[in-house]
Amino acid sequence: MAKISVVIPLYNKVNYIKRALDSVLHQSFQDFEVIVVNDGSTDGSEKVVEQYTDSRIRVINRDSPSPGGHKARNTGIKNAAADLIALLDADDEWNAKHLETILRLREKYPFAGAYATSYEEREGNKSKIPTFWFIPKRNWEGIIPDYFKSCVYGASPVWTGAVAIPRYVFGEVGYFPDGVRKGGDLDMWARIALRYPIAFSRYIGAIYYKDIPGSVIRVHTMREGFKIVDTLEGFLKDNPDISRKRERYIREYINRFRLSSASHCIKAGRTDMAGEHLKKCHTRRFFIRKLYLQLKRGRYCLLHKFLSFKGERKSKEEEAK
Predict the structure, then answer these.
(1) Is the pTM here over 0.85, yes or no?
(2) I need a surface site. Which of 27, 91, 199, 217 has the fewest CB within 10 A?
(3) d(CA 19, CA 200)
(4) Range in 30-39, 158-167, 265-274 with the lowest mean pLDDT
(5) By mean pLDDT, which of 93-97, 127-131, 292-296 is the weakest?
(6) For residues 159 and 115, what is the distance between their CA atoms, to the nearest angstrom?
(7) What Cα–Cα distance (Å) separates residue 4 from each residue in 35, 77, 87, 302?
(8) Can you state the angle between helices 271-279 and 287-320, rounded to 10 degrees?
């Protein structure tokens, strides 16, 4: 049996899936299987995979795509043979020692609920390494001191293309949320972090391409709230005795998503919905951003009232004629 299962959801990534697969096959650690879950692709993506003759690669076909690719990802996880499951999206890639680093973390921290490496973000000609707060720098690896504190102040140290999760963890916290188009991965990391420590390495194990046409980050606008808000609020309600420090960072993490939802609603013209998100946001860390969004929402409301008044006046004038 392979030591690690690699799960790749695939939907219309004919120009990128070869890059992803090649990056897996060129890993310094080679004891793995690759499960590509074809999520109803219509551009011939699955034919690219079929050209590979490596017996470690197998394809599972689904008839129709799922929002966010979560159902396809869950299908791969449930069909994996190994006890450790690494995730990779079809339009991203790994650096050569990613799996080697993941397995070293697993050996050093067998009690962790997830094993993650740092990652590089690329968009056009721009490239950057996200800023991870309250995690030692340089070549450090170990247990993240406080996952939620890190997420409040900086980027999430866990990203879908640079993480591996033990099989039993899914039995404890559940799978990726089906039907959630955006943010389902963050909800998963939060559920894991509420129960388990998370091991992390500063080694840049993966490359996240943010400029891919058709990717969720480019096509989806969040008008409703994030599922992670319900998850974390439910945890706080069920665990009133947690430390004030942990509660504070979890609440501020919730506020970060409330403000993001409010911003999306304002852009979509749903100032009423934006107002609901802002009303529930009681923040210190993001006070300036909340104030900015309140002013922005107010400006939109005034503009809407002015246009409505102007329209009513014009109608009355036309009726008088």
Answers:
(1) yes
(2) 217
(3) 25
(4) 265-274
(5) 292-296
(6) 10
(7) 11, 11, 10, 57
(8) 150
